[in-house]
Amino acid sequence: xxxxxxxxxxxxxxxxxxxxxxxxxxxxxxxxxxxxxxxxxxxxxxxxxxxxxxxxxxxxxxxxxxxxxxxxxxxxxxxxxxxxxxxxxxxxxxxxxxxxxxxxxxxxxxxxxxxxxxxxxxxxxxxxxxxxxxxxxxxxxxxxxxxxxxxxxxxxxxxxxxxxxxxxxxxxxxxxxxxxxxxxxxxxxxxxxxxxxxxxxxx
Length: 203
Hints:
mainly alpha, about 65% helix
């Protein structure tokens, strides 16, 4: 998938300003291609979009969920706790200059990626599941993911990182379901639990 082409095709549905559309893409590419982006990068976006395309017939508002994908991690600093809020704010600033009609829905979806709680909005649940799809991939892929995340948090020594990481993993394991939708749960739940338990043991 050529993300630039995919993004511009999306934006042209609610903006005929080609210069502005390109500027928005260039900004996204720059942020997700930063030197500290080992996991939260363009590949992460591509993976999410690919996964969502498999369930496109179950998604109510495709434009909104894909805009949420592109902007949900545009601001990402491992040491900060307001990444989602800042990402949502930047999305609002950009999309309010277009004819996009679902800015608030997009903002709410982006904010939901902070806590990953079950939502009353089915599209939000699909977004959350796509965001966590790496957890249910084969161990080799998952292990690479853990290394990439560790690289993003390299500012923290193991003494601090490992307990924090265990807490995150156990938070997901203690939930009745890691994945909110039946489609993702059926495909990825069992492998995700095996991967998370294995990482906890290794930590």
